[in-house]
Fold:
Amino acid sequence: MRIAEIGLHRLRVPLRQAFAHAAGSRSESELVLVELSDDAGLRGWGEVLPRPYVTGETLDTVLDLHAPRIAERWLAHDFGERLEVLAFLGAEIDDGALATFGGFELALLDLAGQRLGFALADVLGGMQRPELPAGVIIGFEIPTAKLERHCAALRFGKRRHIKVKVGLPDDEARMAIIAGVFGDLPLRIDANAAWTVDEALARLGVLAKFPIASVEQPVAKHDLAGMRRIRQELGMKVMADESVCTLADARALADGQAADVFNVRLGKMGGVLAAARICELAREAGIEVSLGTMVGETGVLSRASEVFGRCVPGFDCLDGKGQNRHLLAEDVLVPDSHDSARDDAPGSGVRVDLDRVHALASREPHYHRSRAR
Structure:
């Protein structure tokens, strides 16, 4: 199998409704689909959702810097078996362009799986458990006045894994409404680095009367000392999100006793293989893991997250599961192909609709092509 062509598709996908938290809001998803083609004409797909406040990447740096560099190294590379693919990816991981590399990795695993005969789950040890339930996120887009009705609908739908975005002046009132509906159900809260450590201690001290399971990223990503203070002074579990993107980040958090839980998201950790290594470190360090998604994922990345959650142990739910069908105005997958994908389907098991990709494009795709050796 030789990589013959690499296509980069910049897309703009409207959301059915806006989504907001302390770090910002969005009404559309801007992303890059990575299309790898081999010498037999097969295609593999990956997805890049750059977040400057998470990995430092932007759409422009992905398209103008990181992706062309990876494409130059990967074009015309030959693979004869799965182990060669995994060894290549292990040597290629780029901590300076995690979202970009993760998209390329997924595209290569999809392509190689189709050509060489293995499923995405196979590189993660195989599927070990049923599908994870969906975790629900209550963001700022739900006005306080409509919060009770919204939560009642979630409770009626038997939703049991709830995350609440915090960082508003009326956090206490909102939490009272939510806890009033869900009773003693433990709630995860997420501040998206909205506070200084002193603000966090004060605000969380007020919210501690509610059944809080953990607080996610209460302070800036590099403030490990602040995260440790919150753990020690409030006795509250702290979940690292923006703070844990690389294996080195995970080691620093463990060594600094700064986190009880790691929020694992493939789109920020450099793909499935790097995320699996971080999960392994977490298990060794006695740190819990939680599985999430990037807001605005298409089915390309969402499918990979679902497979990951069924292969790697330790997760209770998948936050944002199914958002490609419920949050996006239109997905890039062939209709119904996500739900009908077989567990043992070669590659990642997705079928991308090229007409939809072209319709959602915000600019002409760019192709890198190899010369025959």
Remarks:
- The first strand starts at residue 3 and ends at 21.
